[in-house]
C-alpha cells in the first residue's frame, strides 16, 4: 500500500531556515500536502503542490518536489518560535480517490 | 462560516460503552472523512463519504460505524468501546477537487 515517511524530529535556531523532508511510494499521487499541527489543535493546511510541478513558493514557505525520487521537502525561511509544531506530509489521488495518506509527522523545535 | 465543528472535545468512556462523535460542516462539501491519530503516529483513515447516503471504509474501520443522511453531518459511532480506541479523532471535509481538506479541532477519547 501507499506509504509516506518523514524524519520525526528537527531542531533549528530562530532565524535559520528549516527543511523538512518526506518520501512517498505511490507514483500516481496527484497532490502532495504539508499540514501543520500545533499542540492540542487540529491540522492546518500550509501548502500543497500538484504532482506535475517541481516547486511552489508561498511567502516564507518553499515546497520542492522531485517526482523521480518521490521526495518532497518543505523549507521555512527565517524560522520563528511560532513555527514550532508538528508538520505532516500527506499525499492524495494515488488510489483514484480523495483520501489522504499521512506521514507520522516531524516535530519542529525552534530554539530562541 | 464555522468550518468543521466536532463535539465533544474530550470524553472518557468505560470499556463496552457506546458513543457518537459528532461532526458538522457548513461549507457544502461533498467529501467528509474520519481519521484517528495515535501518539507519535500520522492520521489513519477510519471511514469516508463522497456524498449524502454514501459511505465507505478506510484503513482502520473495525469497531466503528458511520452514517451520512445529509451533506452537513457525518457522525462516527463506537458501539463497544475498547482501550485500543483511545485516540484523538479528527473529522475533515473537502471540495470535489480536494485541493484542501478542512479539519475539525479533534475529539480526545479515552477508554478505561
List the helices and strands and how they pair.
The complex is a heterodimer of chains A (112) and B (112).
Chain A: E1 4-6, E2 9-13, E3 18-24, E4 31-37, E5 43-50, E6 55-58, E7 61-66, E8 71-76, E9 85-92, E10 100-102, E11 106-111
Parallel strand pairs in A: 2-11
Antiparallel strand pairs in A: 1-3, 3-8, 4-5, 4-9, 6-7, 7-8, 9-10, 9-11
Chain B: E1 4-7, E2 10-13, E3 19-25, E4 31-37, E5 43-51, E6 54-57, E7 64-66, E8 76-78, E9 87-94, E10 101-103, E11 107-111
Could you characterize what this model shows?
Chain A has 112 residues and is an all-beta fold. Chain A is built from no helices and eleven strands. Chain B has 112 residues and is mainly β. Chain B is built from no helices and eleven strands. Chain B is globular. At the A-B interface, strand 5 and strand 9 of A face strand 4, strand 5, strand 9 and strand 10 of B.
Features:
heterodimer, A: 112 residues, mainly beta, six-stranded mixed sheet, five-stranded antiparallel sheet, 0% helix, globular, B: 112 residues, seven-stranded mixed sheet, four-stranded antiparallel sheet
Amino acid at each position: 500500500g501507499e506509504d509516506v515517511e518523514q524524519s520525526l524530529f528537527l531542531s533549528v535556531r530562530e532565524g535559520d531556515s528549516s527543511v523538512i523532508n518526506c518520501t512517498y511510494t505511490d507514483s500516481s499521487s496527484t497532490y502532495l500536502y504539508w499540514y501543520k499541527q500545533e499542540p492540542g489543535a487540529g491540522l492546518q493546511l500550509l501548502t500543497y503542490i500538484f504532482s506535475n510541478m517541481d516547486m511552489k513558493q508561498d511567502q516564507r514557505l518553499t515546497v520542492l518536489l522531485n517526482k523521480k525520487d518521490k521526495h518532497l521537502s518543505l523549507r521555512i525561511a527565517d524560522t520563528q518560535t511560532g513555527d514550532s509544531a508538528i508538520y505532516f506530509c500527506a499525499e492524495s489521488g494515488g488510489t483514484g480517490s480523495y483520501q489522504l495518506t499521512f506521514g507520522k509527522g516531524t516535530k519542529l523545535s525552534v530554539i530562541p | 462560516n464555522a468550518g468543521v465543528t466536532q463535539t465533544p472535545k474530550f470524553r472518557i468512556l468505560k470499556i463496552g460503552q457506546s458513543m457518537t462523535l459528532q461532526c458538522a460542516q457548513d461549507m457544502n462539501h461533498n467529501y467528509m472523512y474520519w481519521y484517528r491519530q495515535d501518539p507519535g503516529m500520522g492520521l489513519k483513515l477510519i471511514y469516508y463519504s463522497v456524498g449524502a447516503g454514501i459511505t465507505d471504509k478506510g484503513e482502520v474501520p473495525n469497531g466503528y460505524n458511520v452514517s451520512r443522511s445529509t451533506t452537513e453531518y457525518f457522525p462516527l459511532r463506537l458501539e463497544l468501546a475498547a482501550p485500543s480506541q483511545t485516540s484523538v479523532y479528527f473529522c475533515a471535509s473537502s471540495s470535489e477537487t480536494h485541493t484542501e481538506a478542512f479539519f475539525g479541532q479533534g475529539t480526545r477519547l479515552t477508554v478505561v
